[in-house]
Each structure stands twice: as structure tokens, then as C-alpha cells.
């Protein structure tokens, strides 16, 4: 029997019981034929009440993947997805009501699409304490999908692909704690497919505070470490961290889009990220494992 499902929406979640419910509600309210899409939520070994909460919600498929890492969870979702397309977002995101329709429209108006990269906007979640420096940093540097698409990559906060294309490449690299989305996008582009930016397909992402930004940096360094096989990879990652620090510092201080006070506050975040990078590289060089948080 042929499935009527056109797109499967896959969302991994880990210890995010409050925000994942908001995400699911936004997904259930899409301006899209209800029978044409399914929602698959994969709990990645939560230690709070996330798994119990999502099991109570009707109209979705709930799975568990106990191997740590969101890419292992996404692969679990891929293994049961019924759709011709698969769309990904994150448990803390709130997709616009026209998100799915816009992604599909973009995908079906061009040939040789590997990934449709939707836009990401930021909002200040009332339950979070966000300092002005972190909000300014997010606006400067975070989740620029249009720029990512130009480089042939995308983040899974807002992603659509043909399921077949991902499965033919073996899915995401489940060993990675971070960077598996860029890794997959590069594999797709290496196979002759393209990454296309779709401005109309928007998900809203809560701005992160400084602590969350630094946690993300630790995950990114760990992901880069795990997927780098070259000798002296600690030197390579150190050089990349230095280049990023210099590039972002120059961008901030030569920007005309922010006041001097804002630029100085963002520079403080950039400097903190740089020192966290050095610390994490030293830890990994000493033999410790990459972390998910």
C-alpha cells in the first residue's frame, strides 16, 4: 500500500520538555494537508520528564534512541519515516505556519536539490534570561542559513531533503556530537546535489544566553575533533580557532550596524568563545572525550 505521506518531520529532543511541546504544537498547526505529513519525535535519552510528556501527545510518532547524540536520533527517525521528503528542526524551534509548504515549494521548483535550507530568526523566550551581549552576538553570527547555503552546507534547525538521498549516503554520522549536519550537506554536494536557501521557510529559534553559546562552542570543537583524522589535529583546530577569532573581531569592529557599546559587548563574547575553544582542545588533546553539552 502506497503511503500518502509526502514529508516526514523529524525532531530529536533531549531534556527539553517545555520547549518541545511548543515545537510540536507549531508543527501540528502547519498550513499543509494533515494527511500529507507526519511528525516524528525522538527522545535521545532524556533524564527529565521529556519522554513522558511527548508520549501523551496525540497525532505524533514517539521513538527513543539511547545512543547519545542528535544525529543518532535523527537516523532513528529516518529509519521509520514514510515521506518522500524529510524535514528537520530542533526541539527548541517554533516553525512558522507556512514552513513546510514553503520548503516543499522551494524543493519542487528546482532540479538536483540536496538540501533546502530554510531561514532562522531569533526571539527572546520569556522563560530565559538573555543578556544584551548574547542577543547582539546571535544577531551578528548565529545560524546564517543564506551564507551556509552559499558554502554548500546547512544546519538541521531548518532542513529539507529527499529521504532517498540521505539513506543512500548512510544517513548522518552518528558518531558526531556536533557538525553532522555540515558533514551530511557536504556529502550531498560532493555527489552533485545543491544546497538552496529558502527565505520563506522560517523557524524561530530562542536566542541563547552566554552559557548556552559557550556550551555550543564546546560541542562544535568536539564535533570537529571527532571527524578530523589528520595528524596534529590539535594544531589544526587551534589554527582554525585563531582564524575565527580574528575574522569575527574584524567583522564586529568594522561593522556599521551596531553601536560601539554593542560591538564591545559582542567582542567580549567572541573572546570568551576563543578561550573556551583553547580549553576544549587542550582537554581533548589530553585524551578526554567530546561531550554533548
Question: In short, what is this structure?
Answer:
The chain has 293 residues and is an alpha/beta fold. Helices cover 46% and strands 18% of the residues. It has two domains: 7-206, Spore Coat Polysaccharide Biosynthesis Protein SpsA, Chain A; 210-285.
Give the proportion of residues in helices.
40-55%
Distance between the termini: 42 Å
CATH superfamily of the largest domain: Spore Coat Polysaccharide Biosynthesis Protein SpsA, Chain A
Q: How many helical stretches?
A: 11
Main beta-sheet strand count, sense and barrel state: 8 strands, mixed
Instruction: Write down the CATH topology of the largest domain.
Output: Spore Coat Polysaccharide Biosynthesis Protein SpsA, Chain A
Shape: globular
Write out the strand line-up for the largest beta sheet, numbering strands in chain order. 3-2-1-4-7-6-8-5
The total tally of domains equals 2
Return residue spans where pLDDT drops below 50 for at least 5 consecutive residues: none
Derived from helix and strand composition plus strand pairing, the structural class reads: alpha/beta
Strand content range: 15-25%
Estimated radius of gyration:
19 Å
The count of β-strands is: 8
Average pLDDT reading: 92
User: CATH top level of the largest domain?
Assistant: Alpha Beta
Note down, in words, how this protein is organized.
There is one protein chain. The chain has 293 residues and is α/β, with parallel strands linked by helices. The chain folds into 2 domains: 200 residues, Spore Coat Polysaccharide Biosynthesis Protein SpsA, Chain A, CATH 3.90.550; 76 residues. It contains 11 helices and 8 strands. Strands 3-2-1-4-7-6-8-5 form an 8-stranded mixed β-sheet. Helix 2 links the parallel strand 2 and strand 3.
